[in-house]
Amino acid sequence: MVRFKNRYITVVIVCPFVPENKPLELKPKIFHDTLLNKIQQMHGDFGVASVTNGFLTKYCNENTRIAIIRSRHGPHRFVTSSLPFITKIGKLDVKLHTLHVGATLKHTFKFIQKHQRAYLDSMWAKLKTDEERKQLEAAVMDFTRTDVNINIENMA
Question: What the protein does (predicted)?
Answer without folding.
Answer: Component of ribonuclease P, a protein complex that generates mature tRNA molecules by cleaving their 5'-ends.
